[in-house]
Amino acid sequence: MASDRWVFTAVLFLAAAAATVCYAADPQAHFDWNVSYITVAPLGVSQKVIAVADRFPGPVMNVTTNWVATVNVHNNLDEPLLFTWNGIQLRRDSWDDGVLGTNCPIPPGKNWTYSFQVKDQIGSFFYFPSLLLQRAAGGYGGIIVNNRAVIPVPFAKPHGDVHLFIGDWYTKNHTALRKMLDEGKDLGVPDGVLMNGKGPYRYNATLVPRGIEHETINVEPGRTYRFRVHNVGASTSLNFRIQNHDLLLVEAEGTYTVQQIYSNLDIHVGQSYSFLVTMDQNASTDFYIVASARFTNGSLWDRVIGVAILHYSNSRGKASGPLPDAPNDFYYKGYSMNQARSIRTNLTTGAARPNPQGSYKYRTINVTNVYVLKNTALQAIDGKLRATINGISYLPPTTPLRLADEYKKTGVYTLDFPSVPGDEPPRMRSSVINGTYKGFIEMIFQNNGTRIQTYHMDGYAFYVVGMGYGDWTNNSRGSYNMWDAVSRSSTQVYPGAWTAVLVSLDNVGVWNIRAQNLDTWYLGQEVYMRIINPEPNNRTELPMPDNVLYCGVLKDFVNLNLVLTLNLAALISTIVEMPLLLLF
Ligand SMILES: *[C@@H]1O[C@H](CO)[C@@H](O)[C@H](O)[C@H]1NC(C)=O
Ligand SMILES: *[C@@H]1O[C@H](CO)[C@@H](O)[C@H](O)[C@H]1NC(C)=O
Ligand SMILES: *[C@@H]1O[C@H](CO)[C@@H](O)[C@H](O)[C@H]1NC(C)=O
Ligand SMILES: *[C@@H]1O[C@H](CO)[C@@H](O)[C@H](O)[C@H]1NC(C)=O
Ligand SMILES: *[C@@H]1O[C@H](CO)[C@@H](O)[C@H](O)[C@H]1NC(C)=O
Ligand SMILES: *[C@@H]1O[C@H](CO)[C@@H](O)[C@H](O)[C@H]1NC(C)=O
Ligand SMILES: *[C@@H]1O[C@H](CO)[C@@H](O)[C@H](O)[C@H]1NC(C)=O
Ligand SMILES: *[C@@H]1O[C@H](CO)[C@@H](O)[C@H](O)[C@H]1NC(C)=O
Ligand SMILES: *[C@@H]1O[C@H](CO)[C@@H](O)[C@H](O)[C@H]1NC(C)=O
Ligand SMILES: *[C@@H]1O[C@H](CO)[C@@H](O)[C@H](O)[C@H]1NC(C)=O
Ligand SMILES: *[C@@H]1O[C@H](CO)[C@@H](O)[C@H](O)[C@H]1NC(C)=O
Ligand SMILES: *[C@@H]1O[C@H](CO)[C@@H](O)[C@H](O)[C@H]1NC(C)=O
């Protein structure tokens, strides 16, 4: 038995070596990240947050279309760790997606190197730790994918680039928050909103205590800046606005939009936008930058506001007085949805490729499969409150789905995820959607709960063609935007409403579809879609990386490739340990 396994692993090693990926002449960008806790007090309460390379938020990955990024992640936390690259499509490469369905977690004290190509994409995205609610403790940072030099950008080069990470924040740490969810409790009202890891400017002495550090964005009068804004929070939709300044929306998660002016925009959990902001005001004082909790009422939420400062170099004083007003639409629930519908693709501009992206006429393609994915409010399953999609609360197997496939391990998951909601009682399952390679699918997210959800799909961008209140029916298709819907990786779904998306299943792999809201995601509101080429080959999917980690039913596998790349001392100690390992 033991010797069989020796032979098997050796064969694997040879196969892996033969399949070593070569990206030819594409430029490489290497990142080496030490991931550890640091102690800060963004809201005046000392707490441990997850820092990447000693920074919170982490460093920006600044790459260009088609570059190959390698990211060596050193896990100095006391928990397993994986990073996912939100919005990066990882073409042919779910191996590097950094979610439990594709990767074994990096154990504490260990490091592991991601290697992926940012293929045919541009735009503003972010990375974050995908396990155990860790994003509620930080660990996030920006990803910029620049255009190749030969590709035009539909606006003049801005004078500067500003990154804003906005998100609700709890002074309880992520392990305490996890415990609350495990006990069936709600996370409750957040303690505040952070902007770039910092608390609010003291715009109101009652609401904001003394001694809190706030973010200041320094600008030159008359110049135009690109603001890349990401909602990295746990579960609160935020309204974003800059006092006295217009927001010219130019990009939504990798698509250049029709350039339109907004005085404020709702940014839901996990979403990213770029705005151009021109410093065209008389800077008699500084200005407020605000991100306030949305769709809430009651004074408990008064503190759930992030406030940063926009400071002109010729500013003559501090910002003071009331914050710019939030939309007053408590009695008009269509406001936010209409705003979302107004975000459309600029059909006359290209993105990562020279041809205009609108030339991909999604309206002319026949839909091959329809999925209605419905979530409800939390439901009790075996005495625990869980979140579901179509009655199924996803139970992540200990073996990544993609790895189980590679080693033909059956029984890890089932391919029977229902394509429409049924009558069965809610249940926990490792149930996966059987996607059809090269299919063109319609997914309708129906939110039958009471809180707004953002749905996200890894590996893809989808066309957000429609949204409406009530239950989706076949007739709802009449309201779809079949002309210039925006193609992006996330969409909000309002409570009591639906959102429809179209996706071309051209990227082979096993891909996560999840609620970006940390609480419902943690409680099972996710599913995977498995898309395999019936004639597998390494043009449609890259071979398994040679540094792959093993876990679950494959935990006894030894990655000889890794062993052989270690230094001699490590090699000797591993050889000494290995026979012991193989005995068990
Ligand atoms: C892809 O497969 C072909 C043959 O099946 C092999 O010759 C080639 O080296 C492989 N390429 C990569 C990058 O693995
Ligand atoms: C990484 O962080 C840990 C904990 O802060 C520290 O002990 C270690 O020296 C750091 N390593 C590097 C390479 O910076
Ligand atoms: C989180 O908070 C709990 C107390 O609620 C504490 O026991 C634990 O050590 C904290 N963990 C981290 C990583 O800060
Ligand atoms: C990103 O890199 C490009 C060049 O590749 C550079 O022009 C740009 O200023 C950089 N942006 C940031 C925010 O570092
Ligand atoms: C761990 O980091 C070292 C360098 O610090 C690197 O040589 C090695 O390849 C990394 N291991 C993995 C599995 O990525
Ligand atoms: C669309 O893109 C074109 C070409 O880049 C640009 O000239 C035009 O201003 C854009 N139109 C709108 C409405 O954003
Ligand atoms: C500060 O906030 C409190 C509580 O919302 C409010 O009552 C008070 O009027 C505010 N103060 C100022 C100066 O706006
Ligand atoms: C700018 O504001 C100052 C102070 O309010 C005022 O005196 C000045 O006239 C203003 N200038 C312009 C161009 O509006
Ligand atoms: C907040 O909204 C809820 C539900 O819409 C309502 O029941 C409650 O009375 C409202 N509270 C306040 C303070 O307006
Ligand atoms: C789409 O389906 C219609 C009929 O259902 C058919 O006539 C048409 O050729 C199909 N179009 C494509 C591009 O397959
Ligand atoms: C999954 O779908 C493919 C066609 O796309 C089909 O051949 C296969 O039988 C399906 N598998 C299961 C388990 O339903
Ligand atoms: C949820 O679904 C039920 C039955 O389908 C319906 O009566 C109810 O109005 C829905 N609630 C929401 C918030 O969508």
UniProtKB/TrEMBL annotation:
Tagged with keyword GTP-binding: no
- Keyword Signal listed: yes
Per the UniProt record, the lineage of the source organism begins with: Eukaryota, Viridiplantae, Streptophyta, Embryophyta, Tracheophyta
Query: What protein family does this chain belong to?
Result: Belongs to the multicopper oxidase family.
Q: Where is the Plastocyanin-like domain?
A: 35-148, 162-315, 399-535
Q: Which residues form the signal peptide?
A: 1-24
Q: Which superkingdom, per the lineage?
A: Eukaryota
Q: Which molecular-function annotations from GO does this UniProt entry contain?
A: copper ion binding; oxidoreductase activity
UniProt-recorded name of the protein: Monocopper oxidase-like protein SKU5
Q: Which UniProt keywords apply?
A: Signal
